[in-house]
Structures are given as structure tokens and as C-alpha cells.
Amino acid sequence: MNLNEHKRETEDSFYQRLTKELSFYIEKVKTKEGLTNLTVNDPYFLLNDTWSIEKLATIENFKDAIAKKKFNRTNVIFRFSNPQILLEMKYFVFRKMFDDNWTINTLFVQGNYNLKQLGLFLDEKFPRLNSILDLDIEKANKRWMMWLQEKGIGTHTKDKRYENPVKRPVTRFLKSVYNDLSKLLDFRDEWEKEVWDVRNLNQKYGIYYNHARSHVRLDFTVVKQIPFRFEIQKWLKYRLLSNDLTWGTAVNYMVSIPKFLDFIFELEPTWKNLNELSRSHFEEYLDLLHKENAERQRVTYSYEYVTKAISSANKFLEGLQTINSPLAPKKDVRMIIFRYDRPKKKKKSKKVKYIPDSVLQQLFDNINYLHEEVQPIIWISFKTGLRVSDTLRLTQDCLLRIDGKYQLISDVTKTCLKDHSIPIDDELADVIAVLIKNSKENSNEENNPQNYIFVRYRGVRKGRPYSADWIGERLNSLAKEKKIVDEKGEIYHFRMHQFRHTYAVKMLNSGADFFTVQQLLAHSSPEMTLVYARLLDTTKRKVFEEAMKQGLFSFDVNGEMKQIKPNEEIPEDILEVLWREQKLSAVDNPYGTCHARINGNCPHAEEPPCLTCNGGSPCKDLAIGFSELDIQKYELLVKTSSRTIEVLEQRGRQDIAEKNKKNLERYQNILNTIQSGKFIFGRLDSIKRKQGLANV
């Protein structure tokens, strides 16, 4: 049942509901605890066809905006002859106002103008129309644009950002009214609608979605073949509820699948299903995809468009067969779509795209010119390495103080890590504290149900964080305006993920070890952190490579040093492995750095020779404390043993860590003793025997 059928079936209750909802409004009152909603029983907006600014000025929701207004209009007037359309339009504007989708300026200026033109248009072109939703919207919208042009009203303007022609607000108004009324007046369950809103699915069914992204709707009306529309809805519903599909992937499917169906039914216009779909049909579709992909390339030739389209078609056809749909192909999908149809992925460059210091300097020199809502996001990204999506989902309880030090608490969506903690400095903590305070003062259950600190309190993103794309746009607008350039003198193009790479590189170059950086970045494995190995300690790396060019040395079977590869060029991959192994896997000890200890393969790490060679006891000839270097030796042993235990625990080798703890205790006891000025002898009875022999 579509929306119009649903509306006609319950028409009396439908308009009774509109009448009821226009008989009261929700006033938002500020209290010490934040915003509180009060229900005000007042039929003013139902009974009056002219809404005055004086009335709105008495309602807390609009007081501040009206006090700052820069327009002179005092009334919003509804000029609709049909009483049902009048009721629909009042309800439409009422919801725009009280849902914070329209500002006061939009309501009294652009909105008022649009309402006037739409009333005139409907009276002239559709005098017998009883409901906006009874329009054939595509045909009506074309007549609307022609009518505007006939009246000398401009329908297009130039986009300020991209300088291409775009429709003016009045041109979009009729379709906007129709679409919004369709949503507002559609009281069916979300799964039954032609357009799904994930915010409703999330609230009722717990369907997860990324709040920082913009795609919140799936429009199934783009599927022209009605039987397939229902099958796609059934298939996606099943997968979303079983948590077998993300909302983002569903959005991608709805980009590709309708195009696939359109192509097939253009090839076979008499078909009612896909029962006879064959390999030859899909080969023609492949030709189209590659042709479109070649036309849409700008800089580099990427096959992502082709791969996504093939994967979407494959999953869809498999889904039809899984649910035993009568519309499914008779042939197994594996006989229609082959594995090698998907283009091979090009190997990604291992080069980490971090922000050069010269660019960072220019950015921070001009950061006060950046949009004030974006500035704290840049600072958080730079100082914590959080992904922008995780930064935008920070909540009012994200700041924690432990032992006088601040921690930023966030959930890391990509690795499903809850309450991830990152140490931050007091300066950033002060910024976040202000954001939390502002969020608490301006939030309620309606406009910020998740208690975000980077949230839109009104408009189409109401209750959701800022758009991640908008953050990037603001940042790159600043780069253009202030001419932030790279080493070639070209305007630098920022990507928010570069701040994460920059954070990692700076941490490593400042002396942090790989495992600490892995924890701070919430990487699920050390391999993810390894991508930064090439960038680490560039000065030391150059010294290392220069030394290597002089030739490598190794110990032979007799323990003697022997030079290998003298005067030969050492391959870059060998240098890379040697350097990475030293930085990632080696642990310092008094003799150099060791790879075996960290893997638990060194028996001497647990049983140091001089302290255990005598049946597990120290050597009988060992004496400690006489040499002026002994304290330094044991300080180093304590330090390297502590580090070994830390790394072993991080790797889950608790059994080996426990053995090393015994060693650490032994080293620490010896160090404490000799630091107090005392001496230790291996065996006193051995000394006595020697003394006895000397007296003979």
C-alpha cells in the first residue's frame, strides 16, 4: 500500500490528526539543567491564516532569533483556497518551525515568498486539487517551473562554490513540500514506506548508522520495476535486521542496483523477471561499466566504480536466489558473474600521507581564520590522532581526569573499541571542557539525544554531529583563502585522515615505541602501525643507511666478526626489513639489542649466565659493587628487563613475562644493595677457602 492509498483509507483520522497536532506546540525553556520541553495548549496556528511575528516573539524557541532579526516583514500569510491543502501547508510550516528546520529569517523572507507563489500556482493550475499528495509530482513540478518562468521569476542561480547553475529555493519548493509532507504524514511502519529513514530504523529497531555521514535515507522509488522494488526492500530489511549489512553498504547498493535493472530491462523490454538472465547479458553490462568508468576518470584510472557495481549486482542476484524469489535467475549466479570480472586492485602505495611541518606551520598561523566550529576539531585531530568520525561522535562525558592528568574518552567504531582513552594536555582539555559546557546548556532529549559535543541543534542534521565532508570543505576553503601551499608552491589539499598519520609520525619521532602508538591509535594489530616504520626517525635512519653502505658484519660459527657484501649496494627492501626489525622487535640489553627476548626464545633472558651458571645460583667467583660501573650496569639491566616485561605483556606472553619478573626482582635487589654502598660476593665460603690457602 502506497502513501496515497494509506491516506485515503484513513482520510478522516488523517486530517483529525493534523488538526490535533496544530492545536498545541512544544516550548523549549532554558533551565539550570539545560533545555526543558513544555507542552502549550494553544490553537493559534490552527485557527489563524496569518501568523504574526509578535506571537512568535512570545515563544521561547524563537525569542533570541527574533531579537537579532534583520528583516522588516511581520507576518506569514497562507493563501490557499482549499481547506485541506490549507491545513496541510500549515502543518508543513508548523513542523519546519518547531522542528528547527527553518530559521526565523527563512520563515518570514524566503518561506513567505514561496508560500505566496505556490498558493497562486495551485489556484490557477490545480483549482480542484484536494491534497498536495494527490499531485503527480514529476509532471506538476515541470508545470511549476514553466509557470515561474512565465511569471518572470528566475528558476536558477550560480553555485558560489562550484560556479555551476543550481535551482533557486522557490524552484525546489513544490517538490520539497511534496516530499516533506509525504514523510510527515506517512504514519506507516518504516519498513512499509517507499523511503526509509535510518534515524527511524535506529530508534525503533537499533539499525546502526554513522551519524557523521549525510546519507540517512534509502529511496526505493528509483527502482522503476515495482515487483523488484518490493523484493529489494525485503532483501535489505532481512540483511539489516540480521546485522549482515551496514547502512552505508545498503546506500551503495541502491546506487548500483537500479542502474543494473534499468540496463537489463532496456535490453529485454518484454521481461517481467530475471529468470532468463545469462552470461551474455552481464557481459554487455560489463562493457557499459568500463565505458562509463573511462568517461568519469579525471586524474587516475580507478576501477572502484566498476568493482562496486559488479559486487552490488552479484550480491543482489545471490540475495534473490537465497530468498527463493520468483524473480531470480534460473542459472546459478556463479555461471553469470565470474570471479575475474572484478578488476584487480592496484597495490596501494605504502607512502604515508602525513602533513609536512611547513604546511602545519601555515595552518596554525591562520587557524583563527578557520570557521569557529571547525577549529577545535582540528586541534583534537592533531593532538590525539582520532579519526574525524570518532571525533565528531565525542559526547558530554568524554573528558576524564585521573591523577591530575586529563584523558579523552571515545568509542572507536572501526575496531569496535569502547571507552578508548588518550592522554591530552591541559590546553586541549580546557577547550573540550567549554564544548561540553555549551552542549549541556543547549541540549535536550529532542535536539541532542546522544549528548554529542559537536552537534546541530536545528536544520536537516538536527541531533546529529557536523558533516565530516563539511569539515574538510571548511579546511580547504581556508587553504585557498590564505594560500597555504606545499613545497612546490601549490595550494595544499587537506584530508582529515592526514592528521592521524601526522600524530603517529610525531609520536614515533619523539621517542614513543610502536606498541604505545598502536594503543593510542587503537590499531587492532601491530601491522597497521608498521606503515609508519619508513618515516620513523629520519635523521637516525639516514645514519643507519649510510653505515650499512659501508658493508654489513655478522658473527661466524667461531664467533668472529666477518664482513658480508663488501662494497655491494644493499637492496632497499633488505634495509627496510633490518630497520623495521630494529625499531619494532628488538629490545635493548647490556650487549646490544636482541630479537629473541621479545619472542620468548632466549633462555639467557630468564637465566642470565653469571647469576645462574652455578646450578641456578650466581657464579662462585662473582663479586658486585667493586667496579664504579656496576651501578650503571644494573640500572641498565633493570630498565631493559622492565621494557621486556612490558612488551611481552602487550603481546599476551604472560607466561614468559612472569619468568622475567623474577629476573627483574633479582636485578632490583642487587641494585638496591650496591646503591647503598654495600658489596656482594659470589660465595663467602669460597673466599674463606682461598684465604685459608693463602695462609698456608
From TrEMBL:
The keyword Cell cycle does not apply. GO terms for molecular function: DNA binding. One of its GO terms (biological process) is DNA recombination. It comes from Alkalihalophilus pseudofirmus (strain ATCC BAA-2126 / JCM 17055 / OF4). Keywords: DNA recombination, Plasmid. It comes from the Bacteria. This is Transposition regulatory protein TnpB. PANTHER family: PHAGE INTEGRASE-RELATED, PROPHAGE INTEGRASE INTD-RELATED. Pfam families: Phage_integrase (PF00589).
